[in-house]
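To the wet lab folks,

You asked to see what we're planning to order before we commit. Fair enough. Below is the target structure as tokens, and below that is the sequence we designed to fit it. If anything looks off to you, flag it before the synthesis order goes out.
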């Protein structure tokens, strides 16, 4: 009888040891999974930061509060969901990181769309300002007496060519694309307003 009891205890101890080894193996696998998830999460956040930095400064200022609110909501939602889905701390951490990475990846195209929308609005407004300034310049030029136009006409044409070149250079310095187009339009509006102000001196004479 004693021998049977000893065998049962030995088997029980062996099973307990085996279970501990399995638990340790599971923990090690879960820890390795967490490390991989953290690497993926960092990559997602790096990409998100690049998308954020790609926004025009004015857009970042406008969206700062909304972005901070999204950050807080993402963190609270992922923390709550991970605890709701598991009671094991390491598993909770893995679930939280997975949730965070997923939310960040979904935010990236939204930020890029925000950038496109903001830039589109900026271009529309800049186009309107440039057109208004050019129309104002045309109106002032038409008001200049004919004899004065004969005298300054050549200078006016030279200014127009120089202004166009200056604004083309501004677009190039801004890096081309939407930023370049925006810089060209802003330059065009400024040049036209300044020239209109100069020509009004001839109208008042």
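Sequence we intend to order:
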């Amino acid at each position: 009888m004693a021998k049977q009891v000893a065998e049962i205890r030995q088997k029980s101890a062996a099973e307990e040891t085996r279970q501990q080894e399995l638990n340790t193996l599971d923990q090690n696998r879960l820890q390795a999974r967490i490390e991989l998830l953290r690497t993926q999460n960092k990559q997602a956040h790096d990409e998100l930061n690049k998308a954020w930095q790609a926004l025009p400064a004015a857009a970042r200022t406008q969206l700062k509060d909304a972005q901070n609110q999204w950050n807080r909501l993402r963190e609270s939602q992922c923390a709550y969901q991970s605890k709701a889905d598991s009671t094991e701390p390491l598993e909770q951490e893995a679930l939280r990181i997975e949730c965070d990475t997923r939310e960040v990846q979904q935010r990236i195209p939204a930020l890029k769309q925000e950038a496109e929308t903001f830039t589109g609005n900026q271009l529309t407004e800049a186009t309107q300002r440039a057109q208004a300034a050019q129309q104002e310049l045309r109106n002032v030029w038409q008001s200049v007496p004919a004899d004065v136009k004969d005298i300054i006409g050549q200078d006016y044409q030279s200014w127009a060519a120089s202004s166009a070149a200056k604004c083309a250079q501004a677009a190039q310095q801004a890096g081309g694309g939407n930023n370049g187009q925006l810089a060209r339009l802003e330059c065009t509006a400024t040049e036209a307003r300044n020239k209109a102000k100069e020509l009004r001196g001839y109208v008042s004479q």
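Structural context that might help your review: Residues 89-143 form the longest helix (55 residues). The radius of gyration is 34 Å.

Thanks,
Computational group
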